[in-house]
Amino acid sequence: MDIKLQVNAIMLGVDDVARAKKFYVEGLGCEVEQDYPGFVRCGLGEGSSSLVLYAREAVAQDAGVPAEGSGFRGCSFHFITDSRAAVDEAMRAAVAAGGTTVSEAAAAEWGGYSGYFSDPDGHLWKVATEA
Q1: Residue 56 in contact with residue 67, Cβ under 8 Å?
Q2: Out of 12-26, 72-86, 90-104, which region has the weakest mean confidence (pLDDT)?
Q3: How many CB atoms neighbour CB 70 within 10 A?
Q4: In this predicted structure, what is the pLDDT of residue 64?
Q5: Which residues contact 78 (CB under 8 A, 6 or more apart)?
Q6: To the nearest whole percent, how much of the chain has pLDDT over 70?
Q7: Contact between 79 and 30 (Cβ < 8 Å)
Q8: Among 14, 31, 92, 124, which residue's CB has the most CB atoms within a 10 Å radius?
């Protein structure tokens, strides 16, 4: 069997699904594709995976692992834009929606421009441009 790995959906375990939905939909412009109690699936735009917001306890139970956890979770999400202005705009939108600036956007040693924010549940997002 020859399987090629794909990412069709990114699931985030969140403490408050309604709060996360407000952050991603109202604050960052994601489109709701499915909306059920404790579960929301959002579209991130053509060519991108879906973003699923699911109650943290339910995700942990589904995976058979403890729900506790804090700090760096071993992954971050990256949003690559076409300009420094777009990086700054995305960072401002995230903070205005209830996110937290983790690292101010600044010139990067690799020549680009980037910053990090976290959503209300602490999931890290890097916003960057190569320009």
Answers
A1: yes
A2: 72-86
A3: 6
A4: 74
A5: 125, 126, 127, 128
A6: 92
A7: no
A8: 14
Q: Is 110 exposed, middle or buried (0-12, 13-18, 19+ CB in 10 A)?
A: exposed
Closest to 52 (Cα-Cα) out of 3, 62, 116: 62
79, 50, 75, 63: CA torsion to nearest 10: 170
Task: Tell me how far apart the terminal alpha carbons of the chain are, to the nearest angstrom.
Answer: 41
Give the chain as a 3 state SS string.
Answer: CCCCCCCCEEEEEECCHHHHHHHHHHHCCCEEEEEECCEEEEECCCCCCEEEEEEHHHHHHHHCCCCCCCCCCCCCEEEECCCHHHHHHHHHHHHHCCCEEEEEEEECCCCCEEEEEECCCCCEEEEEECC
Supply the pLDDT for residue 56: 85
Q: Is the pTM of this model over 0.90?
A: no
C-beta separation of 121 from 76 below 8 A: no
